[in-house]
Amino acid sequence: MRSERRTTIVEVLLLLGVSLGASALWSILRIIERTTRNVALNQQSSQLNTSVTPDRPWLDLAYQLVGIGLGVVPALLALYLLRVRPGTAAPAPVEPSLGLARRAPLRDGADRRAPVRDGADRRAPARALLHGLGLAALIGLPGLLLYVVGRQLGITTEVQAANLSGAWWTVPVLVLSAVQNAVLEEVVVVGYLLTRLRQIGLHPWVAIAISAVLRGTYHLYQGFGPFLGNAVMGVVFGWYFTRTKRVLPLIVAHTVLDVVAFVGYTLAKGHLSWL
Question: What Gene Ontology molecular function terms does this protein carry (predicted)?
Answer without folding.
Answer: peptidase activity
